[in-house]
């Protein structure tokens, strides 16, 4: 089983040769505009447009926790919108929007496509920003759903700001 490659940089500028799938977590209420999705939209307009259309048609499709939408944005780059967040705000004193089970379910979907394409999956520390999750809970999901299936994964941590 391979290991996660951790790098400093921007997951919207995935490194290396060949096909790439950029995975990130979205909410289940149709909101797009804060966090990593902003960087995605600045680089590629297609994932946001596809997510919004998917949400609008949710009565007739699979939109919901654990679902995945894969959008081609370049010849060899796809973005995977993973629905792994309930709502957009913390509720009460500690209930965070992240839904680990949904992230685990969603992570399984890109694996066959990544393997067929010979693609590496690139991502920020999904579910750990505005969704409020912890990496110690997300990392094992990546290992189980992607690494064990032979999918190589690169996780990007932001470049440190100069002081």
Quick take:
The protein is an alpha/beta fold and 163 residues long. The protein has five helices and six strands.
Give your account of this protein's structure:
The chain is an alpha/beta fold and 163 residues long. Helix 3 (100-108) runs parallel beside helix 5 (135-145). It is globular. It has one domain (5-157): 3-Layer(aba) Sandwich (Leucine Aminopeptidase, subunit E, domain 1), CATH 3.40.220. The chain has helices at residues 36-43, 46-56, 100-108, 110-117, 135-145, and strands at 5-8, 20-27, 68-74, 77-85, 120-123, 153-157. The relative contact order is 0.24. The model has no long low-confidence stretch (mean pLDDT 93). The termini are far apart. Residues 1-163 form the Macro domain. It catalyses: an N-(ADP-alpha-D-ribosyl)-thymidine in DNA + H2O = a thymidine in DNA + ADP-D-ribose. InterPro entries: ADP-ribose_metab_enzymes, Macro_dom, Macro_dom-like.
What ranges have pLDDT less than 50 throughout 5 or more consecutive residues?
none
Count of alpha/pi helices: 5
Mean pLDDT: 93
**What structural class do helix, strand and pairing data support?**
alpha/beta
**Coarse morphology:** globular
Q: Order of strands across the biggest sheet?
A: 1-6-5-2-4-3
* Overall CATH class: Alpha Beta
**Superfamily (CATH H level) name:** Leucine Aminopeptidase, subunit E, domain 1
Q: Helix fraction?
A: 25-40%
Strand % is 15-25%
Instruction: Give a short account of the largest sheet.
Output: 6 strands, mixed
Distance between the termini: 38 Å
Annotated CATH topology = Leucine Aminopeptidase, subunit E, domain 1
**Rg estimate, integer Å:** 15 Å
Count of discrete domains = 1
Reported CATH architecture: 3-Layer(aba) Sandwich
List how many beta strands DSSP finds.
6
Topology as a string of helices (H) and strands (E): EEHHEEHHEHE
Protein name: Macro domain-containing protein
Domain Macro: 1-163
Catalytic activity: an N-(ADP-alpha-D-ribosyl)-thymidine in DNA + H2O = a thymidine in DNA + ADP-D-ribose
């Amino acid at each position: 089983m391979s290991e996660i490659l951790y790098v400093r940089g921007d997951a919207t500028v995935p490194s290396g040769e060949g096909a790439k799938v950029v995975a990130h977590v979205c909410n289940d209420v149709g909101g797009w505009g804060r966090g990593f999705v902003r960087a995605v939209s600045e680089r590629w307009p297609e994932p946001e447009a596809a997510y919004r259309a998917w949400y609008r048609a949710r009565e007739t499709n699979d939109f919901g926790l654990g679902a995945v939408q894969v959008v081609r944005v370049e010849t060899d780059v796809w973005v995977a919108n993973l629905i792994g967040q309930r709502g957009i705000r913390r509720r009460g004193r500690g209930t965070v929007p992240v839904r680990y089970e949904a992230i685990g379910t969603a992570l399984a979907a890109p694996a066959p496509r990544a393997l067929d394409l010979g693609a590496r999956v690139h991502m920020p520390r999904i579910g750990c920003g505005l969704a409020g999750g912890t990496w110690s809970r997300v990392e094992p999901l990546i290992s189980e759903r992607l690494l064990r299936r032979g999918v190589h994964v690169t996780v990007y941590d932001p470049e440190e700001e100069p002081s």
